[in-house]
Amino acid sequence: MGRLPLSGVRIADFTWVGAGSYTTKMLADHGADVIKIESSAKVDGIRLSAPFKDGIKGVNRSGYFADRNTSKRSITIDLRTEEGRALARRIVVASDVVANNFTPGTMAKFGLGYDDVREINPRAVYLAMSMSGDSGPERDFLGYGLTIGALVGIHHLSGLPNREPAGTGTNYPDHIPNPCHSAFAVLAALRHARRTGRGQYLDIAQTEPTIAVLGAAFLEATVNGRDPQPLGNAHRRYAPHGVYRCAGEDRWIAIAVTDDRQWPALRSALGLAEESCPAEWATEAARHRDREALDGLLAAATAGRDAGDLFTRLQAAGVPAGVVQDAADVVERDPHLQARGHWVRLEHPEMGETLYNAPPFQLTGTPATLTRPAPMLGQHTREICHEVLGLDDAEIARLQDEGVLA
Fold first, then answer.
1. Confidence class of residue 2 from pLDDT cuts 50, 70 and 90?
2. Is residue 331 part of a domain?
3. In which domain, by residue range, is 322 found?
4. Does residue 334 contact residue 340 with C-beta atoms inside 8 Å?
5. Any idea what DSSP says for residue 18?
6. Is 174 a catalytic residue?
7. Residue 346 CB coordination number (10 Å)
8. Which CATH number is 67's domain given?
9. Final residue of a structural domain among 271, 295, 326
10. pLDDT tens track for 94-133
11. Among 70, 147, 224, 355, which residue carries the largest CB count within 10 Å?
């Protein structure tokens, strides 16, 4: 395999938890040398997050941490010590990107704020991913995916009508809008630095990329003066549009008819009797008007069907449909993901063979791959001290004995 797209780029990675870690993971999987700077005194929160390999809790056994930190190296440094802060600054000097997702001011306490970094490495791209950004009245507020989703309106729009806000079931801001926008910003700033020799400060308020995915809702409120409400699986125009029970325990299929041509195809595939479907249901407006009756009809028609067989049949007829898969389905029984090589198995020093997501996009000219499993806490401390900091074994041993490399 040739050089990966980001080969030669080094990232001093102070991020933790979800959004920051996934941002730097995408860069690491595409060839960047991402040095995860950690501390055994206060480990990354997702190192302590379930699920754990074999149900045994440990800083090196979290599946969540593992999937968000592939292809990285880990060094442990106690930033509470002056020597530790000096070592971190030396890694920063040798890096192209410095990344963190702490609240504003946290990095400055360690002498690693943007002004500090710019003084010692003016070409460094400095990524800061706090919840609310580095300005404004909520600058110092702490937040996670759940609170970000609440603040920007996701929770208001999620769930069933006339029920309490439900959210998305996962910390959606941590996994999609924030890491993707941040990685894009880093690549743009790296291009600028390569052309000019000057880095810059990337101030990303994690609330704002998340707002960007809700454009239609804000337009509904500002243009039409209507406050969008949660719809569950329903749609404001299309019907049928929902999930319907199939044969077996907790087996369902999602069906969405998005134009009038798909309706007769759905009727035929399900064998719906003509007398059970009013002729006016040939139009989108009538189907949406009668969507409760239509949902009841479809639920009865799908109840005895195998979800997988029905999925194949509907797709062949040109009707958008998808089996509601659980985790085991996605990993073990999805032939499409298997054919695309989406799942990657790597040998982890403590967990053994573990499963990872492949990079979420494929480049034909410089295909990316996971170069190593997620690092053990401090696994590469000695290696980084030799290669990046130029320390000899005696100096490394002294720093470890004194708790600086810890």
1. low
2. no
3. 241-326
4. no
5. T
6. yes
7. 18
8. 3.40.50.10540
9. 326
10. 999 999 999 999 999 999 999 999 999 999 999 999 999 9
11. 70
DSSP string, 13-57: E---TTHHHHHHHHHHHTT-EEEEEE-SSS--GGGG-S-BGGG--
| Catalytic option among 29, 33, 96, 174 | 174
| pLDDT tens digits along 158-194 | 999 999 998 888 888 999 899 999 999 999 999 999 9
H or E stretch including 40?
Answer: none
Q: Are residues 268 and 373 both part of a single domain?
A: no
Instruction: Please say whether the beta carbons of 57 and 19 come within 8 A.
Output: no
DSSP 8-state assignment for residue 35 = E
* Domain presence at residue 154: yes
Q: In this structure, are residues 319 and 257 in contact, taking their beta carbons and an 8 Å threshold?
A: yes
**Mean of the pLDDT values across residues 342-346?**
94
Interacting residues of 98 by C-beta distance below 8 A, sequence separation 6+: 11, 12, 14, 92, 112, 117, 121, 124, 125, 126, 127
Contact 399, 405 (CB under 8 A): yes
Same domain, 321 and 344: no
Tokens of 272: 């719906």
CB of 206 within 8 A of CB of 130?
yes
Cβ atoms of 206 and 147 closer than 8 Å: no
Tens digit of pLDDT for each residue in 185-221?
Answer: 999 999 999 999 999 999 999 999 999 889 999 999 9
CA dist 184 and 28 (Å) reads 14
Measured CA to CA in angstroms, residue 363 lies from 4, 30, 39, 180, 366 at distances of 10, 10, 35, 16, 6
